[in-house]
Structures are given as structure tokens and as C-alpha cells.
Request: fold
Amino acid sequence: MFTHNLGYPRIGSRRELKKACESFWAGTLTKDELLWETRQLRRRHWQLQREAGIDLIPSNDFSLYDHVLDTALMVGAVPERYHVLADGKAGRELEIYFAMARGVQRPGADIPAMEMTKWFDTNYHYIVPEFRKDQTFRRYSDTVIHAFEDALQMGITTKPVVLGPVSFLLLGKEREAGFDRIDLLDRLLPVYADILRELTARGAGWIQIDEPCLVLDLTGKQQEAYRKAYAWLRKEVPGAQLILATYFDSLGENRSLAAALPVDALHIDVVRGRKDWAEILTDDTFLSAGRILSLGVVNGRNIWKNQYADSLALIAQAEAVLGRDRLWIAPSCSLLHVPCDLDLETDEISLPAEIRDGMAFAKQKLTELVHLKILAFGEPSASGKAILAENEAAVRRRQTSSLIHRPHVKERMEAIQEADFERISVFAERQSIQQAWLQLPAFPTTTIGSFPQTPDIRQLRASFRKGTLSAEGYESGLEKEIAEAIRRQEAIGLDVLVHGEAERNDMVEYFGEQLSGYAFTRNGWVQSYGSRCVKPPVIYGDIERPEPMTVRWATYAQSLTDKPVKGMLTGPVTILQWSFVRDDQPRRDTAFQIALAIRDEVTDLEKAGIRVIQIDEPAIREGLPLRQADRAEYLRWSVDAFRLSTAGVADETQIHTHMCYSEFNDILEAIARMDADVITIETSRSQMELLDAFSEFAYPNEIGPGVYDIHSPRVPSEDEMVQLLHKALNHIPARNLWVNPDCGLKTRRWEETEAALRNMVGAARRLRPVI
Ligand code: GLN
Ligand code: ZN
Reply:
């Protein structure tokens, strides 16, 4: 019976990896220094896992940038355009590696980076492997071998981790038409066999092969690829001891496939796969093959303490069938997705001790595994009893804490009625009422919310936070910024104005800080991509809005102009998606609690005379469950949460929403059911093509397809935007078309912002005579 870890956060509890990489990119750290520093970090993490008492410690879970990129290098899948960087010389691997991740731009070389996308339903982004029809593979980078050897020098025989060949292919994409990347498997497998053979020869016992794609809906052909790959590897490298790791969901339809793959151990996520994990215990093939089952019982996706009694019940259930020799325990997935160390959180104001007491970060989760092993398999002892009692007490405290449970919030949840989700009139009626009330011109112009966050603005917020600026000083500073933003918008000639969001550093944290039920960490960083980290706030309890959050700024802005000022809020699903969420009630309930708080803000804004209110939901799509079968339910409650937050207003009040991604096809029905009077979306980079779906679906409400890309400082011309608008008019009735940029402008400078918006307003005006 082993405890093992699937992966440890790479970034470091003090974000050492971030600092080292960024210094190296900036030229202030040499290559040798980078390698030395990151080696120390890796070693520290091994040491820490050894001290925690983990039986099998992973290696090659570390990465300088991304493990999928590492895999591409391991098998030599380096796209042609980077080959010039090698320049016929050896030792250029690191330069090529970072060029693939980030692109290079210097005299003599201008090569774009590879694409990046979300790792399953996490907030981690990986580099998407690129494949060509004539793709070949070879052993290229030996990081996996070096890491194993390095740990061996410390006296630790690690469990090397590699991303499996089938998932590697499935997670990539074809760079040209005319082939299916899964057909490259035959060419890829020999490289894997070679690596497994060498690791085994150098003394590796267990090797972990990650095949997370086994939790997705697979086609027959993809399933066949799994059978073929593992049968072949087994035959080629009979001596390698393989643990096949799956995570992020249950195996579902792929259970018998996974159970029959000829490996030595299978890891399953029993947190996400809680519903049906135990079916593996009745799978005859799995049972008769004598394989080990690794139970992922400690949640690798959130920051709450494990409930030992609960985990012990699962372990006992598996032990009854398999016996202890065929049973391991582990985190549900790599700990990459949680922060490093709760011990660093000592600020009681942002994280009350009572809440902290219910939490566990990566380091604490290792201890939980060791505790579970002692409790499940150790001799009964006084210390075991104490461990269990302490855990049970912590669980009970969470169940009864008055910080967490607010009876009146629960009462209000109970009292929600059907009518609370419905606007008074249907869209067609609201549209004419709003037209009469707002008196906007055809093709109204607006922006998405934020304006340039100048150094002055950042300074203002920072000094206020530090306490070196008084509340009055801060407020008058903000008012000055708002007045300036309003003045500029009027000069540009925009129709619906915004206050500019100068008071916000982040669209979720800003609201979290004003809601009860939220806590914040100082060092709770989680890697998002490369050296970038996020620090999600923590929803620990019932959510409530003690007082208005944005009304003051919106009404001040409105007092300065006759044009409508758009109130600006973040939607309940986005707030949920970008936080760590309590695990003691369904996500839907937490979303509804947030929705009620936003609803109060919406009605307060309306009362204060704000006639247009935007509720951003850029994260609805990323919350989609991995499996098709689970999506309808998620979309039902997430759209309901949006409706609950918006439906409290009069017909006159115009509700906007904003989303910034380029794929709507599969969720258009849900988007339509949100029933926002206006939706603004990112479209300029796709040349309005994504409106095809909207017109085919006959999307009924008003739309503002972004007419320029805010990610670039480039100022688009009036002509360009007129052309895009003509394209949009092929899809959208003129009465429904808005004119706006793709997203918020906070990363831009005023200079280019003003120039671009002036051209945008010019473009809208040129179109107006059309109707
Ligand atoms: N209102 C936000 C802004 O303008 C929207 C940000 C987003 O869509 N991610 O910054
Ligand atoms: Zn956006």
C-alpha cells in the first residue's frame, strides 16, 4: 500500500520559478543560473515530499514552462519554423524551447509562438503541439532522464511522469489538412518505448503515464488507439512498471477500455468521479488482471481539507475487493492546480483563522495522504485517534461556523421563485420601450468597460491599499479619473459611456472584497501559464452584499453627462469560475447566492438612475463540463444564475452582457436564453465569421460584435471598421447592431485608445444613413 503524488506545483511557494524565468528572459540571469535555481527548486520539492512521508515521489512533473511543451520536445515535435534557431549548433534546446512557448522577435528572427489553450477544465494553459502530415518523431530532449538521475543523487528513486502518447496526440492539432493526428501513433510509439526502456534500465521502478483524455468522450477510433498503444508498449518494454493516470472526471464510457489496458496500475479520480468510480471494482478484466488501483481521494483541484472519515470509507470499499496490496492512495490529480503552502498564510484579516483551519494547500495535502494511510492501514494507535478526532472537529466546525452559514441567506435562497428569473416583458417589447427611453442613434457606439489603467491609477490604488493615501484622497483621485474618462468619451462622441473601472485591479477580486463569504490569500498563487500565476479568491461561506458596491462610481459618472452611463458588474458564473469555491454545497447554490447579491446591485443601480447595466460573463464557456452529457445541466443553472441577477429590473433598463471568446456554436441556445438585451462579443480577429452561427440560429437580441482587437496597440482605420460592420450587417438586422471594441481597454494607452475609438465612432456614423 503506497501513497504517491501525481505532481507538485512547480512555481514555488515564493514564485521562485516565475522570478527565475522572467529574469532569464530579461537577460539579468544567465542560462546556467536559471538551470541552477530551478534545479534547487525541484530538489526542494522532492525533499519536502520525502519529509512529508510520501512513498512514491514524482519527477519530471516539474517544467520550466509547460509539461505538454516538454513532451513535444521529448519526442522531437519541434515545428519547422524554429529549426533556424538551432543554426546547426548543439546546445540550443533552451532557446528553442522558450521560442516555442513565447515566440522570438529580434534582429534576424521573428517567429511567432505556438498556440496556447486551456488544460481540460482548469485555469492552466498548455502549449498546443502541432503536427504535420509527414511528421516524424525522435528522442530530442532528455529532461525526463536527467530529472530521474538528479533525484537519484539525493537518494530518491522517483516515479518519472510522462504525458501519454495518445493524450499527447489528442491534445495537439493538425497544422495542415488531409490527415488525422491520431494516425501518427505508430511513428510516435517507438520514441516512448525508447524512453521507458532507458528509464527502466537506469533503475526506475514505477513510471506514471498520464492519459487524462481517457475521461473525455472518445470516438471508436480514439479508443482503438488506446488499445493499440498500450498493447504495443507492453510488448516492446515488458519490464517497465506502468501506472496509467486518469483524472478530472470519471472514466464513464471508457471504463472497460481503461480497465483492460495492459498496465500495472490504474489511477482514477474518485473526487470528480465520485458517482461511479466503484464500478471499476466490479470490472472482471481489471480484477482478474491483478492490477493495482490508485484512488485519487485528496482533491487536487481545491483548497479544502480532506474529510478523513469520508475518504476512509472509500478506501475501505476498495480494500474489501482488492485487498491492501492492490491499493494505493493519491491526490485526485496533480497538485499543480492548488497553491503551495498554507503555512505562509498568516494574515488573519484577509483569511480568518477559523476559515484557514478548514483549508489545505499542496504541502498540507501530502500530509493528508500520509494521515489517511496511517488511519487506513496502520496499527490502531493513540496518535491515529487524535489525528482523526482533530479532522472530525475541523469538519464539524465548518458545518456549524457562523462565519460560513448565514441563515437569512439560506432563507432567501429558499424563497426564490420562478418569476425571479423572468423579465417583465419579452425582448421584442422591451426593445421598443428601451428605444423610446434611451433615444440612441442607429448603430449605437459603446466600449466594454475599462479604460487605460495608467501608472497614475495603479499608484492611486496602491497608495490607498498601503494606507499612505486617505479614503478622501483616494475618492477624489478616482473622481478625477472618472471625470477625465467621461470628458474623453464625450469628445470622441460615444453614445453609451462607461466610468472606466479605475477602481478595479481585477474583475472578480473587486467584487469578492465587498461580498461576505469571501477570503483572500497572500501567497495562494496557482500557475496559469508559463511564468503567469493567478491568485483566486476563496468563497468559503454564504454570499451576501452588505452594501452597494459600484453605485457610488456609476452615479458620479452619470452626474457628469447627459449620455447614458453603463453600470458595470461581473456576473455570477464568472465570479464563481475564477474563485476557489466551497465544496460543502453544489456549485449551483453558490452561483445563485452570488446572483442574488448581483441582483441587489443591479436594482440599486437602477434606482440610482442608471439606465444601462452590463454584467460581464466571460467565463461561462470555460465552466463547461468535460463530457457532453453533463453540459445541459451546467448550462441550465449557469444561465439561470445570470437571469436571476438581471431579471429584477424594469423593461426600460437595458441589460448588457459581454463575453470574450471565439466559439459560440455549441452554446448559442444558452446564450439566447440569457436574454440580455445586448451582448457584446470578441469577433474582430475572426473577421466577423463567428456571426454565421448567430444568424443561422436567428439570435433575436441586439449584438455588438467587436470591430477591433484590443490586444494590439495598432489603430484600425475607419474604412476597415466600416467594412467589418458591412460584413456584420449580412448576419445581423441593422436595428440590432451595436458598434464597440472586442473587449476592455485597460491594457492600452490613451493615445491609441482615443485614436481607435474616434475611428470607430466615425465608422458607425458613416453607416447611419443606410437605415
Ligand atoms: N468590463 C471588463 C473590462 O472592460 C470586461 C473584461 C473581460 O471581458 N475580461 O475590462
Ligand atoms: Zn472581454
